[in-house]
């Protein structure tokens, strides 16, 4: 169950409505408040305009950080309250040419796989209309350090892309994201997969 939600609320999270306080990952180069900003989103503290639900930051802090090996050209950036890892890449590129890589852990199920895949599709401009009937056709099953995970690679029609991985456990969900402009994401996909393969869970 999500912190701050009843079991019924957690099971009924809508694709187009992330619960208040749940940190989402804005795509690089997209101004989610409107306009055409190409600057990278602020990474200091919580995501702009958002704050963690009561207990969420404490849950994140208490969850052991996995061991991993980021790519050499990934620049580490300050963590938000629910992130265990955060980078921009390539480190020497202009902000509008960078991708963002994040590792986030949430208590509960975060609405489940279908809701998150549809939300990610919406972020890159694809219809968020998958159902349980066709979800499996759009998701790849992978294994991260012995744990089953689900992965999607999304290329939107307006030049934004996202690779997302969910590792759903009984009491928590790990979300691993690579997002940004399509060309930049494509250039980092191999490095992102190598990063995923390097993960060693500690929880």
CATH architecture of the domain at 69-203: 3-Layer(aba) Sandwich
| Fraction of residues in helix | 10-25%
In DSSP terms (H or I, runs of 4 or more residues), the helix count works out at 4
**H/E topology pattern:** HHEEEHEEEEH
Averaged pLDDT: 80
Question: What percent of residues are in strands?
Answer: 25-35%
What does the radius of gyration come to?
16 Å
**Overall 3D form:** globular
CATH superfamily grouping of the domain at 69-203: Mog1/PsbP, alpha/beta/alpha sandwich
Largest sheet, if any? 7 strands, antiparallel
Contiguous uncertain segments of 5+ residues: 1-50
Description:
- It is a single chain.
- With 203 residues, the protein is α+β, with helices and mostly antiparallel strands.
- The protein has a domain at 69-203: 3-Layer(aba) Sandwich (Protein Transport Mog1p, Chain A).
- It has helices at residues 7-11, 56-62, 113-123, 182-198, and strands spanning 75-76, 83-89, 99-107, 140-144, 147-155, 160-168, 172-181.
- Strands 1-2-3-7-6-5-4 form a seven-stranded antiparallel beta sheet, with helices on both faces.
- Strand 1 (75-76) and strand 2 (83-89) form a beta hairpin.
- The radius of gyration is 16 Å and the shape is globular.
């Amino acid at each position: 169950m999500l912190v701050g939600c009843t079991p019924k609320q957690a099971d009924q999270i809508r694709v187009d409505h992330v619960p208040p306080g749940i940190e989402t990952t804005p795509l690089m180069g997209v101004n989610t408040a409107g306009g055409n900003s190409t600057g990278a989103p602020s990474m200091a503290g919580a995501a702009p305009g958002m704050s963690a639900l009561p207990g969420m930051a404490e849950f994140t802090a208490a969850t052991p950080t996995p061991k991993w090996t980021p790519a050499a050209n990934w620049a580490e950036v300050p963590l938000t309250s629910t992130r265990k890892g955060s980078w921009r890449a390539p480190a020497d590129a202009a902000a509008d040419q960078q991708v963002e890589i994040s590792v986030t852990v949430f208590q509960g199920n975060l609405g489940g796989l279908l809701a998150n895949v549809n939300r990610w599709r919406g972020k890159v401009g694809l219809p968020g209309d998958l159902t349980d009937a066709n979800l499996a056709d759009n998701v790849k099953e992978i294994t991260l350090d012995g744990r089953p995970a689900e992965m999607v690679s999304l290329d939107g029609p307006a030049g934004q892309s996202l690779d997302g991985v969910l590792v759903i456990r009984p009491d928590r969900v790990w979300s691993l994201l690579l997002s940004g402009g399509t060309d930049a994401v494509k250039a980092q996909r191999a490095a992102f997969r190598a990063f995923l393969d390097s993960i060693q869970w500690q929880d």
